[in-house]
């Protein structure tokens, strides 16, 4: 495009005006395409990540054990703390049933912090043993443990 001095009264030819308009449209469309690509890339990056949430099982997630595979952790804890058990069953709703004898049952929820529940179990069992009391059921799934004595 030719530049004319400001004091000149010459008009810009129609052909040059059309070329300038085409260049302007091309430039604006190029900028829009770059912005759309950037927004699409950022949107894909943000939406493709897993949602961020606070885990109710921080210890188990930090060692790489998922909610479905807690039986080995429970077994290891029970063995290291000398708490007797005969078997561990997973019942519906993320609940684990620990059988000591056919009459003694312990319930633990996988939706709460399992290590905290197991620590409570250790303390309750040692306390009941010291007091000479026998239990038939310990339910640690609630905020306050439920203890059913014989």
Can you walk me through this structure?
With 150 residues, the chain is an alpha+beta fold. 45% of the residues lie in helices and 16% in strands. A 5-stranded mixed beta sheet has the order 1-2-3-4-5, covered by helices on one side. The longest helix has 35 residues, at 14-48. It is rod-shaped, with a radius of gyration of 35 Å. It starts with 13 loop residues before the first helix and ends with a strand. 10% of the residues are buried. Mean pLDDT is 79; it is low at 60-67.
Features:
45% helix; 150 residues; Rossmann fold; 5 strands; five-stranded mixed beta sheet; 2 domains; 4 helices; alpha+beta
Helix and strand sequence: HHHEEEHEE
Measured by DSSP, the beta-strand proportion falls in 15-25%
What would you call the quaternary organization? single chain
CATH architecture of the largest domain: 3-Layer(aba) Sandwich
Counted beta strands = 5
Query: In DSSP terms, counting alpha (H) and pi (I) runs of 4 or more, how many helices?
Result: 4
By secondary-structure content and strand pairing, the structural class works out as: alpha+beta
Rg computed from alpha carbons, rounded to a whole number of angstroms: 35 Å
Shape designation: rod-shaped
Give the name of the CATH superfamily of the largest domain: Cell division protein FtsQ/DivIB
Helix percentage: 40-55%
Mean pLDDT comes to 79
- Give the biggest beta sheet: 5 strands, mixed
Strand line-up of the largest beta sheet: 1-2-3-4-5
Poorly predicted regions: 60-67
What is the domain tally? 2
CATH topology of the largest domain: Rossmann fold
- CATH class categorisation of the largest domain: Alpha Beta
Distance between the termini: 100 Å
């Amino acid at each position: 495009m030719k530049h004319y001095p400001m004091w000149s009264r010459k008009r810009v030819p129609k052909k040059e005006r059309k070329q300038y308009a085409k260049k302007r449209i091309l430039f604006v469309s190029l900028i829009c395409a770059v912005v759309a690509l950037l927004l699409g890339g950022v949107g894909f990056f943000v939406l493709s990540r897993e949602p961020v949430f606070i885990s109710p099982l921080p210890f188990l997630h930090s060692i790489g054990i998922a909610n479905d595979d807690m039986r080995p952790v429970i077994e290891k804890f029970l063995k290291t703390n000398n708490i007797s058990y005969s078997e561990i069953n997973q019942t519906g709703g993320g609940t684990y049933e620990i059988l000591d004898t056919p009459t003694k049952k312990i319930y633990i929820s996988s939706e709460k912090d399992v290590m905290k529940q197991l620590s409570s179990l250790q303390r309750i069992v040692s306390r009941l043993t010291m007091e000479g009391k026998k239990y038939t059921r310990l339910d640690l799934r609630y905020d306050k443990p439920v203890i059913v004595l014989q």
